[in-house]
Amino acid sequence: MPFSLFGRRGKAWALNNSPGCRVHGDDGSITKIGGRFFIPNRGGWRNLQGMNSRFVSLFCFIVVTLAASLPLRAGPVTATVPTPAPAEGGYFKFGTATNPAGHEISLNSRSLLFDGQPVFPVMGEFHYSRYPEAEWRQELLKMKAGGVDIVATYVFWIHHEEVEGQWDWSGRRDLNAFLQTCQDVGLKVIVRCGPWCHGEVRNGGFPDWVVAHKDWKLRSTDTNFLAAVKPLYEQIAKQMQGELWKDGGPVIGVQVDNEFGGSPNYLLALKQMAIAAGLDVPLYIKTGWPAMHTPAPLGELLPLFGAYADGFWERNITAMNGVAWQNFTFKITRTDTGVGNDTLGNRKAGDTAGTEKYPYLTCEIGGGMETSYHRRINYDPRDVESVVMCQLGSGSSLLGYYMYHGGQNPEGKLSTLQESQATGYPNDLPVKTYDFNAPIGEFGQLNPQYFWLRRLHLFLHDFGAPLAQMPTTLPEALPADKSDLNTLRWAVRSDGNSGYVFVNNYQRLQPMPAKTNVQFKLNLPGGEFVFPEQPVTIPADEFFFWPFNLDLGGVKLVYATAQPICKVEDGNVGTVYFAETPGVKAEFVFESGGKTVRFDAVKPGKKVAGKLKTAAGGTVQFVLLKEADSLALRKNKAGDGVFFEKKPKTTTVSVKSDLIRSAGPAREIALSTGRSHIALAPSEADFTNAAVWKIYLPKKLDLEANPILRIHYMGDVARLTLDGKLIEDNFFNGRTFDLGLRRYGPAILSGDLELEILPLRADAPIFLEPKNKPDFGGKDSLLKLQGMEVVKQHDDGSED
Fold it and tell me: So what's the pLDDT on residue 1?
C-alpha cells in the first residue's frame, strides 16, 4: 500500500515502498520511471537522475519516514457509475393485481410497483400463533409506528393439525382474525404457507403424523405427500376468504415452502395447488436461498433473500465463523450462503441463474437472533443496523426483517412445539421463548434497534421510490476478506446523476479502524464528481449514507455529509430533516437559482439550520439533528409535522424471593452424535438438580399496563413455572430473563410462581459472546441470582 502525505496547496505526494513500482497520484507524485525519479515542478517534472545520489536517498528516506508516521490514507476512493439500463418486466406470471378500489400491485426487475409507480416498502415478520390474540392489535400498531408496511407470517402446519384431521384455527391460531386485524390497522400481509416452514418449530412445521410416514418423500412431488398438503392449502384458503387483495383484503402474496433448493417442480406444484384452492394473489414467492441449480421458469416465483450478522445454525462455538462477515460488506450477489447451513450445509457463493431479472427483495434480514443451547448469541443492536445498511447499499428495494417481533411457542396437544435435537433437528431451542432479540420483544418491549430502524424507515417512505430504481455500483477497491480492515467498505446507488453513497466501517465483534483523508470520486456519465470538498475521517465503527445531487423540490442538494431522515410540507415551505454522522462535521452544499450555497460545520439542533428560496417562490429549509434526537423523531399522523418522543423514566419495584432448594452438581453435558455433534440441552430430569426460588410479586400490580418481571442471573438455563406449569424459559446469554405478567394474570399474583436455574459449567461446550462470559473465579461451575424487579410499561411498550 502506498504511503501518502500532503504537501503545499493540499496536493497529494505519494511514494510506494515496493521496488520498481510506479505510483499514480494527483499532480503531485514522486514517480520512478525507467530508474529515474520525478517530482512535480510547477506543472512540469523535474528529473532527479542527475542529482546527487546521497541527496536522493536522503530525500526518499525522509519522505518514507514521514509517511510511515502518518495514518494510512483511504481516499479518494473511486467508483464508476454507469447509466442504468431500463428496468425489465412483463414476464411475471402472478395472480390478480388489482383490488376493488382500483389499486394495482405489480413489479419490474428493480422494485415493487404500486399503481405503476416504484415503492420501497418495509416488511416485518410476526407469527400470529406465537402471540395471544388479545394483544395482536397493540403489537401491530407498534410495528406500523416503527415504519412497517407489510407483515409476514408463517402458517405452521403443526400448530393447526397436530392430530390428523383435527383442525384448530381458534384463539391465537385464528389466521382469519389476524388478517382482519392487520386490515384494520392498515398493514398488508404476506402469508408464508409452508408446508415446511422451519421457523425453529418442531419438525420444521410438519405434524408428527406426517413425519411418521416413512414411505413418503417429504417436500417433493410424491403424490401421497401432496395429497396430505392439499387439505392444508384448502384450509388456509378458507381462512383467507375475503382477505385477499383482489377482494379488498390485506393479503398481497403467499410463499410456498421455505429454503428449498431441490427441483423447482415441487415449488411449482405448490403454486398450482394454492391457485386451485383459491389463493389468487398479486405475488407468489419463494425464498432465494439456497441457489437452485435448475431455476424455476422465469417469472413464476418471486425470490426473496436474507442476511444475518451471525446465526445459531453454525455448528461451531466460535464467533463469526463462516461467511457471515460478508454481510458487513457491500456486494452484488444476493444469496447469504451461511443462513440455514445446519439443514442446507455449506454452499458456494453465487445466485441462481436469472436472479438479476427480479428485484432485490428481502424477507429475512436478521432483526435479532434466537438463542440456541450451543450458541448463545447476543447481538449488539449495531450488528443488526450495520447488516441492514449493507443490504440497502447493495441494492435491496424491500427491507424485510426476521424477526421484527418476537413471540412464544403455543401449547401443544401431544408435545412441546420447539425445534430440538431429540426430534432429529439440528439445534436445541428453548421450549417456550422465541424472543429472537427482535426490534420488538416477545412481551412487546422496544429494543434499541427498533428506533434506529424506525429512523431509516422514515427515510424510505419519503425518499425510497427513486432509490428503489437505483442500481448498486461497487467501488474499484473491495475488501479481500474479513481480516482486511483497511479497505473502506462503501457502495453507490445512483440513477446516473443523483444518488447515495453508503459506508459501513463496522463489523461484528471486530473493532474497525478509522479511515482518514477520505473523499469519494464518482465517475458519473456526466463527468467526474468528487465530494466532500475537503477529505474527512470516517470514524471507527460507524455506518451511514450521504446524498448527492438530490432534488429537494426546486433546490438541488449537491451533497451533504449528513444522513437524510424525512421531509414535511407545510404550504410552500418544505423542511428536510437530517441526522448527524457522529464524528464528522456536517457540511451542506446546494445549488439554487444558478448559485452555489454552502453551509459549513453546521451544528446539530432542533432549529432550522438553513433556508433557500426556490424559483417558484417557495422555501426549502433543513434541520440537522443530534443522533439521540434523530432517533426520537416521529412524524405526526397528518404527516405535515414532526415531534420528538420524550424518553420515559424507568420505574422499578423490587421483588422478593426465597431460595427453597439449592442447586446440585452441574450436569455433565453430552454432545449429540451424527453430523451436528453439539451440546445437548438439559432434559426434564436434569432440573431435579436446579436451584429453586419462590417469587413474591407485589399484590397491587396493574397488569393491564403489562409490567415486566426482569430477572438478572448467571447460569446455564433458567425457567419459570406457575403452579407447576412451565410458562417461560431462558438459555443464559447475558441478557436479562424477562416475563410479561399481563398474559398470566390474575393467577400470577396469587399462584405459586417459581424460578429454577441450572449451574453453568466453566467447560461447557457452548458459545457465549466475549462480553457475556462470566468470571468463574477458578471454580468448575457458576450460578448466581443477582436480583429481580418489576418494570412498569406504557401501552406502547416503552418503559415507565
Answer: 32
Beta bridge partners of 695: 657, 753
Residue 526 pLDDT > 50, yes or no? yes
**Looking at 309-426, which runs of residues are DSSP E strands?**
361-366, 375-376, 399-402, 407-408
The four Cα atoms 339, 345, 350, 355 give a dihedral, to 10 degrees, of -70
State how far the Cα of 147 lies from the Cα of 455, in Å rounded to an integer: 8
Longest dimension (CA), the chain: 97
Q: Which three cell numbers stand for residue 277?
A: 384452492
CB of 291 within 8 A of CB of 339? no
- How many other CB atoms are found less than 10 A from the CB of residue 683? 9
Neighbour count for residue 482 (Cβ, 10 Å): 16
Distance, in Å, from the CA atom of 88 to the CA atom of 111, rounded to the nearest integer, reads 10
pTM over 0.85: yes
Q: Give the tens place of pLDDT for each residue, 687-717.
A: 999 999 999 999 889 999 899 999 999 999 9
How far does Cα 93 stand from its chain's mean position?
29
Residues 574-582, mean pLDDT to the nearest whole number: 98
Q: Hey, is 96 helix, strand or coil?
A: coil
Q: Which of 188-192, 244-248, 569-573 has the lowest mean pLDDT?
A: 569-573
Give residue-wise pLDDT tens across range 295-337.
999 999 999 999 999 999 999 998 876 668 899 999 999 988 7
* 60 phi and psi angles, rounded to 5 deg: -65, -35
In 111-237, the DSSP E strands lie at 112-114, 117-119, 122-125, 150-154, 188-192
Give the Cα separation of 41 and 46 in Å (integer).
Answer: 6
Q: How far is CA 147 from CA 151, 451, 608, 625, 774, in A?
A: 11, 10, 25, 19, 37
Instruction: State the Cα–Cα distance between residues 438 and 125, nearest whole angstrom.
Output: 10
Nearest to 478 by CA among 363, 330, 365: 330
Q: Are strands 586-592 and 595-602 parallel, antiparallel or unpaired?
A: antiparallel
Q: Give the whole-angstrom CA distance, residue 206 versus residue 197.
A: 8
* Type of residue numbered 521: K
SS (H, E, C) 435-492: CCCCCECCCCCECHHHHHHHHHHHHHHHHHHHHHCCCEECCCCCCCCCCCCCCCCEEE
Residue-wise pLDDT for 61-79, tens only, equals 444 344 333 444 445 899 9
272 contacts: CB under 8 Å, gap ≥ 6: none
Task: For the chain, state the CA radius of gyration.
Answer: 29
Q: Distances in Å between the alpha carbon of 800 and those of 140, 445, 701?
A: 21, 12, 14
Gap between the Cα atoms of 685 and 552, Å rounded: 65
Name which of 316-325, 387-396, 463-472, 491-500 the model is least confident about.
316-325
DSSP-derived secondary structure for 656-703: EEEEEE---PPPP-PBPPTTT--BPPP-GGGGGGSEEEEEE--TT--G
Q: Assign 218 to helix, strand or coil.
A: coil
Q: Which helix (H) or strand (E) holds 519?
A: strand 515-524
Residue 342: what pLDDT? 65
**What are the DSSP E strand ranges found in 110-164?**
112-114, 117-119, 122-125, 150-154
pLDDT value at residue 266: 98
Closest CA to 559 of 523, 532, 586: 532
Instruction: State the pLDDT at residue 323.
Output: 67
CB 108 within 8 A of CB 91: no
Q: Which helix (H) or strand (E) holds 253?
A: strand 251-255
Identify the H or E element spanning 784.
Answer: strand 784-791
- Cβ atoms within 10 A of the Cβ of 331, count? 19
Per-residue pLDDT tens over the stretch 623-679: 999 999 999 999 998 888 999 998 877 789 999 999 999 999 999 999 998 778 999
